[in-house]
Specification:
Lyase 2-enoyl-coa Hydratase, Chain  A, domain 2, alpha/beta, single chain, 10 strands
Amino acid sequence: MSDSDTILSALADGVLSLTLNRPDKLNAFNEEMHLALRAGFERAHADADVRAVLLTGAGRGFCAGQDLGDRDPSKGVPDLGHTIETFYNPLLRLIRSLEKPVICAVNGVAAGAGANIAFACDITLAARSARFIQAFAKIGLVPDSGGTWSLPRLIGEARAKALALTAEPLGAETAADWGLIWRAVDDNTLMEEATALATRLAAGPTKGLGMTKRAIQAAATNSLDEQLDLERDLQREAGRSADYAEGVSAFLEKRKPEFKGQ
């Protein structure tokens, strides 16, 4: 695990909290923060004690995307494809492939890659004052961090194009109404609600939750027959898990289940 102070990391009650921590830069990514956040998600993959991840930002913003000072063309033409392949794409793949819930708490502006990383998480809550901005159009770039993949799937081509081409800010409540995020909540209760949700999911049947995530994500490209076969195969695996045995026992005995995530 990285010891960089650009990411604050804490594990409690099965929840690995990862906080983007460059508040003076609205938590814009530099290479150090990229590597530290990747290390956090790699830990989530490898550590059985981690049963959910909670991602948020320090200060008044969630994430302003890439720190453009690190990619200033006046200092030499940057290879932004290399930046994406080296930093953003591995992060998005780690988030999507983690078979544990990833909850995102958007505490302020989420711009560029910051917005698209939030959309890639499993359950995203945002403060009512938060804004999502596809800022790429303002500087002649293309949405990355999965933006051109997630936006049309979540809200349709017309709205996706409008957001990407105009770079107009989208409020949290509208984002929730459109289905981009799960819920908009009062600013002063965001972290309380996000932490409670992450803690509840971390105490759940992690193996089954992870397979549910895998199945829903696969549905975007599977045919109905392929999805039915996948459900069959995953249900067979889930039915052999210790968590399923515990869940049935607790139901029959009329008690609260004690899932171990296995």
